[in-house]
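Section 5.1 Outputs to date
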Amino acid sequence: MKDLRRYLVLKYIQYLVLSSSNAVSTSLGLLGSLYTIILLQSAKVSSKSTVVLISSLAKADILVSVSVVSKMVVWTFDVGSSPTAFTSALLQNLLTANTHISCLLLSCVAFEAYLITFFPTESRHLRTVKNARLTSRIIWILVTAECALFQTDDLLKASSTSAPTRTPCILLLHFSSTAAALLRSLSYFLGILLRIVNVYIYYKIFFSMSNR
């Protein structure tokens, strides 16, 4: 559990403390996720709701791995040409999806820590492996839908600039652009809210443990 706690601290710094990712934090995050995935295969790690959330958090870095490997392949074997607009948008949307999934899962872990600290008995029926798996599945589905909307919007924008558009296409482009813009704004404000909530939760937990 000490290694898992260190991994959580690393992820909190990467997604909820740093304003943007960089090469160092991304590399450390990928290595930490790989080690965590291997560690969770051990029979010594019991199956708990927190472990399920951490496992899903580590698997979210697969999206980062796909993006990084794809860029390395392009640079290595096709240096003379740049990736298509579709590919560039897809790689960026994968990184966005990873960030959103990670922030939501980290917030779930923080909320569970809050329940364990202040309502250990009353919340026991909520802190189950089944609920943790359901929560992780819902988060993945919602963020996948968000990623699909962003990708559709980017694809329609790219196609509208390269070919003449008809009225139905213009309407579809306008709808997807409006929906994507609203969702991006919502994601931005939700990210700020999650940072505030996580700071408050761990502030309460820290002072509660200090008083004890």
